[in-house]
Every structure is written in structure tokens, then in C-alpha cells.
Amino acid sequence: VKSEGPKLVPFFKATCVYFVLWLPTSSPSWFSALIKCLPIFCLWVFLLAHGFSFLGARSSARKILAGLIFSALGDAFLIWQEQGYFVHGLLMFAITHILYSSAFGMKPTNVRAGLVITAASALCYLLLYPYLSGPFTYLVAVYTALIGFMGWRAIAGLQLANDLWTWTKLSACLGAVLFMVSDLTIAVNKFCFPVPHSRAIIMATYYAAQMLIALSAVECQDVEVSRKRT
């Protein structure tokens, strides 16, 4: 973990810049979009700092990098969500969750975790359903299924009982959970009722989630290093 810390310094600085400037969402601009996306750009740099050979040899790292690219596009679209670009942002993040799910893989299956996440996702959608109308009735259902699937695949990899875990798997798990918290807050605030301090909750959990998921991409590098040492 210590070896990755210095590479994340630009991300922490960019996140501080976002919260210090705290640009109003009522007046969207390309500058506010840049400030919002800057921490995600820094996570691109974090992964690229491990080298193109690392990315070329690890498909999971490439998929997470691609997910971060689509996330930045989604962030930009959501800056102009009141101008009709909310669905565009939703689509970008849906693609992000598909990429993250693929990066986390389908093994181990962990049916119990899948059932828990399915139940939680279904409950969240049932709570949102009375407030949804038109295309959002279906779009939110699909999106909920995709982020729930991503959460399942991240959580499934963490097998604490069998000691088959690494700090990067824990990172992926926590990142996925925080991502779900962030998106649930968005949905409740947009469709149901105003959530106090919603923007701070959404962005704090979102940036933390993306950082943790980006950290999970370096797992195979750590495994390779440990193999060489043994």
C-alpha cells in the first residue's frame, strides 16, 4: 500500500481542489466539468504510471482504466443534467459498471453474496419505483441491476473466511459498496426527495470508490512480485 501512496498524491490534490472550489451546479461550464473530472484524470495517470507493459499484460487493469474513461464522460454529462444530459451520464456509468464487472471476473461465484446483493438491489428499486415515470422506470431498473452485478463481483472476490484475500480485493469490495452508496444517494435525491448535504455525500463516496477500484487494478502486479520473491 505504501508503494502506491505517492502515485495517488495528484488524485488527493485534485479532490481537494474540487471541494475547495465547490463550484455551483446551477451554472454548468466546461471549467466546472474539468474540475469535477480532474480527480478521475489523475486516476488514469495512476494506472498509466505502472507502465504500458503492465497494462498490456493485465486485461483487468485495462478494463478498469477504460471504466475510468467512461466515468469521466459520465461526470461531464451530469454537469449538464438539467439541460437533458442525465440519461447520457447514466449510459456512461452503465458501461463503466460492465467494464468493472468484467475486470473483477466471475470466479469465485459466491452465491450467498449474489443473493444478498440481489435482495438489496431489488429493495432499493422497489423504494424508488413509486417516484419513477416514463423511460426512467426501465432505465433505473437496468442500471440498478448493472451496479448490483458489479458489486456482487467485487464482493465475491473477498473470501475472508478462507484467508484467500489481498488488500486489493478488499479495496475493490469497499470501492464497489461506496459506488452503490453514491449512486443510491443520487437516485433518492433526484427522484424521491432532497437529501441533506447530498452533493457532499455523493462526491465524497464517489471519489473514494473510484480510488479504491483503481487501487484494485494493481493486484496482479503484487502477486507477480511475490512470486518472484519466492
Automatic annotation (TrEMBL):
Q: How does it sit in the membrane?
A: Multi-pass membrane protein
User: Which Pfam family would be a valid example here?
Assistant: YhhN
Q: Which InterPro entries match?
A: TMEM86B-like
- State which Enzyme Commission number(s) the record gives: 3.3.2.2
Task: List keywords of the entry alphabetically.
Answer: Membrane, Transmembrane, Transmembrane helix
Q: Which reaction does it catalyse?
A: a 1-O-(1Z-alkenyl)-sn-glycero-3-phosphocholine + H2O = a 2,3-saturated aldehyde + sn-glycerol 3-phosphocholine; a 1-O-(1Z-alkenyl)-sn-glycero-3-phosphoethanolamine + H2O = a 2,3-saturated aldehyde + sn-glycero-3-phosphoethanolamine
The organism named in the record is Goodea atripinnis
Keyword DNA damage tagged: no
| Cell compartments where the protein resides | Membrane
Q: Indicate the principal place this protein occupies in or around the cell.
A: membrane
**Family as reported in the entry's similarity comment:** Belongs to the TMEM86 family.
The record lists the membrane-crossing segments as 30-52, 64-80, 86-106, 113-132, 138-158, 170-188, 200-218
What is the protein's given name? lysoplasmalogenase
At the highest ranks, the source species' classification is: Eukaryota, Metazoa, Chordata, Craniata, Vertebrata
